[in-house]
Design goal:
By secondary structure, the protein is of the alpha/beta class. It has one domain: Alpha-Beta Barrel (TIM Barrel). Helices cover about 35% and strands about 15% of the residues. It is built from 9 helices and 7 strands. It has a 4-stranded parallel β-sheet. Strand 6 and strand 7 form a beta hairpin.
Length: about 210
Amino acid sequence: MHAVGDRAARAGLDAVESVRASNGQSGLRHEIGHTAFVHADDHPRFKLLGMVADMSPRLWFPNPVTPGQVKVLGPVRTQRCHQIKSLMLAGAELTYGSDWPAAAADANPWVGLAGMISRRNPFGLFPGFVGEAEAIRIEEALPLFTTQAARSMGLENVTGRLKAGMSADFIRLAKPLNGQSAEEIAKTKVLETYFEGRCVYGMSLA
């Protein structure tokens, strides 16, 4: 389901809690997309209900929408947008979503990753921060794209990790992401992409 405001997020959590109380556990991992604003009281409920917070779209750094957010929500509430770190500390399981093409001009995940670890516009197009205190480290952000993304789809035993017996899905970069600035990460280019051990994009296709 999709929820942008904290009341909508609470309604989604309440709905799943109510249905599970009536029907029991189904094994499905329900997900709330966007989760732009979630009341602090509801942060731990994601873990309690085994639900996933899909962190999208890429509004966790200054962009053309930010002035409108400030005008409607006020500067304090705008800075509470996308509480990635707070949800993580509460034990919530998070994934990354681009919300392309609705809210992002492209589906480039590197821009979103750069924004997660800096909370500033990686291209310097808009000044300042959005939720600077909610920035997370690169090693905290990467699982949202890999292990936790696979788990949210019920594919944690198939993909999301480099491990014997699992699908050999991976990319090759020119240099490691660790140690790079957010600006450098936003400009990352993939050299090769492998799916099930077969190169589907890049140099090895030549």
